[in-house]
Design goal:
Blueprint: H1 7-23, H2 25-34, H3 39-48, H4 66-79, H5 83-103, H6 106-117, E1 123-126, E2 142-146, E3 149-160, E4 167-173, E5 183-189, E6 195-197, E7 211-222, E8 226-227, H7 233-239, H8 241-244, H9 250-269, E9 271-272, E10 275-276, H10 281-309, H11 316-329, H12 331-340, H13 342-345, H14 352-359, H15 369-378
Parallel strand pairs: 1-4
Antiparallel strand pairs: 2-3, 3-7, 4-5, 5-8, 6-7, 9-10
Helix pairs in contact: 1-4, 4-9, 5-6, 9-10, 9-12, 10-11, 10-12, 11-15, 12-14
The chain binds flavin-adenine dinucleotide.
């Protein structure tokens, strides 16, 4: 087993950090305070090649391997990019574009994937509904076949990039009598009659990521907009779990390093009782806690990337452990970082409070910690 990265991978990671520090990080504060999506940075990420680097060049990507792709996400977090933008990047790239790339027809791939990869258009993925979250198989949105069209009716809830998306990958029941086996996936373009979105939801964290409802009222789409086979939607959604538990978690690993560096720096400068606070054991233990989380989270996340890069089937236990650990345990280290910063840690300009609010999503989104524990306990 390899535990190291190649020289090229490490050089690429440095390049991403450099790019993000120059082009994105200076704009984070403005968008955090206004709670707005940073479209300019998103487009620049597309130009840099971050929004679909694992796709082959003919589909707008760079043919990057899985580990390099995950490293890019880690680099964004390490540079100090906020959790809202990395959430939007993840939903766009891995939940929307990648599903079209993996399961779409050649015509669908050519039409959407290169533009998504270049950041010319924004994508979202709609699975969750007002009454179907953890139990997604109970979703109620229907897609009824009428001649050469499908007619969609229903709504989606908490959809990342919903208010901005040009392309929505939507899961709906083609056979409402069935649960998992009755779900299929469809591409719905912005502007399609009968398709609308709600206002951006006001959230605790990830405020720069726009989240909304999606509404479908007698929304007619061409039958060729179905992605993958009829009834395979649930399986397709579950296949995104590998990216969800690696590339989507990777920015949080990077953020842990960012928080550690900022906290160590502060601890070495802040003087109380005639000493830097970094000389007190209580502070050093907090720094150690952050380091322990960073090291363990990194191993768990790259284990999933490694499985995927080896073409191995998804290891559900490892995926659930990674999601649960990074999600649940990420709050403790950020709490320690806030305490190291004292009163400043509670204030916006020292960033830590924003990281805390952003990280609060991790035990919830994409499968709650309760659900991960359910999966883990089933495998014992
Ligand atoms: C900011 C944000 C962005 C999101 N982005 C997207 C997106 O882009 N696309 C998308 O489709 N969805 C998205 N989601 C939805 C997210 O995946 C769901 O919120 C999540 O799966 C939980 O579903 P729920 O909110 O309906 O909670 P529920 O499923 O109603 O859960 C409520 C509580 O009950 C617990 N619970 C439920 N079932 C069980 C059980 N069997 N055993 C024990 N406890 C249980 C849960 O753990 C939780 O504590 C997003 C959510 C947020 C907040």
């Amino acid at each position: 087993m390899e535990f190291g990265f190649t020289r090229e991978q490490m050089m690429f990671k440095k390049e991403v950090i450099k790019f993000a520090k120059k082009e994105i990080v200076p704009r984070v504060e403005e968008h955090e305070l206004s709670g707005t999506f940073d479209m300019e940075s998103f487009r620049k990420m597309g130009e840099f090649g971050l929004l679909g680097m694992h796709f082959p060049e003919e589909y707008g990507g760079q043919g990057a391997d899985v580990v390099t792709t995950v490293l890019a996400g880690e680099a964004l977090g390490e540079a100090g990019v906020d959790g809202g933008l990395t959430l939007s990047y993840g939903a766009h790239t891995f939940l929307c574009a990648d599903t079209i790339f993996c399961h779409g027809t050649e015509a669908q791939k050519k039409k959407y994937v290169p533009r998504l990869a270049r950041g010319e258009i924004v994508g979202c993925m709609g699975l969750t509904e007002p009454d179907a979250g953890s139990d997604v198989a109970s979703l109620k949105t229907t897609a009824e076949k009428k001649g050469d069209r499908y007619v969609l009716n229903g709504s989606k809830m908490f959809i990342t990039n919903g208010p901005l998306a040009d392309v929505a990958l939507v899961y709906a029941k083609t056979d409402p009598a069935k649960r998992h086996e009755g779900i299929s996936a469809f591409i719905v373009e912005k502007g399609t009659r009968g398709f609308s979105t709600g206002n951006p939801l006001k959230k605790m964290g990830c405020r720069t990521s726009a989240t909304s409802e999606l509404f479908f009222q007698d929304c007619e789409i061409p039958a060729e907009n179905m992605v993958g086979k009829e009834g395979h939607g649930f399986l397709m959604a579950m296949q995104t779990v590998e990216w969800d538990r690696s590339a989507l978690l990777a920015p949080m690993v990077g953020v842990a390093k960012y928080v550690l560096e900022k906290s160590a720096d502060y601890a070495n400068k802040r003087v109380q009782f005639g000493k830097t606070i970094g000389e007190f054991q209580a502070t050093r233990h907090k720094l150690a806690n952050i380091r322990i989380f960073y090291e363990a989270a990194r191993l768990l996340v790259y284990r999933i990337a490694w499985f995927k890069s080896q073409g191995k089937p998804l290891n559900h236990l490892a995926a659930a452990v990674a999601k649960l650990f990074v999600g649940d345990w990420s709050l403790g280290p950020v709490n320690d970082a806030i305490l190291i910063h004292g009163g400043y840690g509670y204030c916006h300009e020292y960033i830590m409070e924003g990281v805390f609010r952003d990280n609060r999503l991790a035990p919830l989104g994409g499968g709650t910690s309760d659900i991960q524990k359910m999966i883990i306990s089933r495998m014992m």
